[in-house]
Amino acid sequence: MPDAAPIDLAVPALERILAAAERLFAERGFDSVSISDVAAASGVCKANVFHHFAGKHALYEAVLSGSCVRLGEAMERMLATGADPAGQIPHFLTWYRAYLREHPATARLLLRELTGNPDLAESGPVFPVLVRLVDMLVAHVRAGSAHGVFREGIHPTVVASLLLGVTLFNAQTEHLRRHMAAWRDVGDDAYVALLTDVLLRGVLSAQALQTR
Amino acid sequence: MPDAAPIDLAVPALERILAAAERLFAERGFDSVSISDVAAASGVCKANVFHHFAGKHALYEAVLSGSCVRLGEAMERMLATGADPAGQIPHFLTWYRAYLREHPATARLLLRELTGNPDLAESGPVFPVLVRLVDMLVAHVRAGSAHGVFREGIHPTVVASLLLGVTLFNAQTEHLRRHMAAWRDVGDDAYVALLTDVLLRGVLSAQALQTR
DNA sequence: GATAGGACTGACCGATCGGTCGGTCAGCCT
DNA sequence: AGGCTGACCGACCGATCGGTCAGTCCTATC
Question: What pTM was computed for the model?
Answer without folding.
Answer: 0.87
